[in-house]
Amino acid sequence: MLYDSLITGTARGTSCLPHRVRTFFLILAFACVCASADEPLATVCEVLAHPEAYSGKPVVVVGRFSFREYGRFLSEKDCVLRVLLDAKTGPVPAANFAVDNDAAGRKLAAVRKSTSLAAFRFGSSDYDRWAMIYGRVEPAPPPEKHGGREFEAASSQVLCHSQTLLIFLHEQ
Predict the structure, then answer these.
(1) Which among 28, 117, 123, 146 is least surrounded, fewest beta carbons within 10 Å?
(2) Are the CB atoms for 129 and 62 separated by under 8 Å?
């Protein structure tokens, strides 16, 4: 598995960060997958199946990242977490934060067995991507009514300190 890019805040993935800063985060992301993690690594359905084990705690969650007009979501079939970015209250990983690359690959393979990326007729794959995110799991506020019903079932959210803690994944 390779780390394709760090989310940069736009649906299309265009970068607003200077090249040096992007390079630093890419090197940091690569370094983070070389050792074992202190925080648990879980799929979206695992988090929702055992809320007492994950609620209020930092976790690395693997799933399908979806960017929509009405929000960001991490999901797999029948399981949805809202993604909320908050630099003030989101958890900051320790300086030695790391994710086990092989374990993340196994989690992604398990998610892909039951979940697919959406095929959009307008041709962009930037709205649905495989990803992992570092954050804290919390109850989600009641959903707002909007035209997109696919993610209304999100009863929990993952609060993330910044967009740089969302890493897109793809297979080799």
Answers:
(1) 123
(2) no
Q: Are 43 and 63 in contact (CB under 8 A)?
A: yes
Strand partners, 137: 55, 158
Sign, CA dihedral 108-111-113-117, equals negative
Share of the chain above pLDDT 70, in %: 64
Domain count, the chain: 1
Q: pLDDT tens digits, residue range 123-133?
A: 566 678 899 99
pLDDT tens-place string over residues 13-30: 434 444 444 433 444 444
Of the candidates 165, 145, 47, which has an alpha carbon nearest to the alpha carbon of residue 99? 165
Q: Which of 63, 92, 94 is nearest to 157 (CA)?
A: 63
Range of the domain at 100: 2-170
DSSP SS3 for 158? strand
| Contact of 115 with 138, CB cutoff 8 Å | no
